[in-house]
Write a structure and sequence with these properties.
The chain is an alpha/beta fold and 115 residues long. It has one domain: NAD(P)-binding Rossmann-like Domain (Rossmann fold, 3-Layer(aba) Sandwich). Helices cover 36% and strands 17% of the residues. Strands 3-2-1-4 form a 4-stranded parallel beta sheet, with helices on both faces. The relative contact order is 0.17.
């Protein structure tokens, strides 16, 4: 069973949580949002741990996948904080435009494996 965390519990995060809930191969393990009540709503009925601090979720060792559903301007910060050697990343093509700082690109690319 894949242990999944969602960072960002707005409209997109809610939609993604529904997909995870319907999966027989994934478990919603954590939901983080600056609005804790919104995170609680997304996690309702699941064993997910709720947090208003996304950094406490992305650094957990028991999470297999992190779904970044924050506003776009925060994607790189969350993704870089969550990056660990050996992780696999799946990103939308438009993300390339977000990596504006060379050190951000370098950091993420140093952890990428091509599949």
């Amino acid at each position: 069973m894949l242990s999944v965390a969602i960072v960002g519990a707005g409209r997109v995060g809610q939609t993604r949580a529904k997909v995870i809930r319907r999966s027989d191969r994934a478990l919603l393990a954590a939901v983080a949002d600056v609005d804790r009540a919104r995170a609680e709503k997304v996690a309702e009925g699941t064993p997910a741990v709720v947090s208003s601090d996304w950094s406490s979720v992305v650094t957990r060792n028991d999470i297999d996948a992190i779904v970044v559903s924050t506003p776009t301007k925060f994607h790189s910060e969350v993704t870089i904080a969550a990056s660990k050697p050996g992780n696999m990343y799946c990103a939308k093509n438009r993300w390339a435009a977000m990596w504006t700082k060379p050190e951000e690109c370098s950091m993420l690319l140093s952890h990428l494996a091509v599949y």
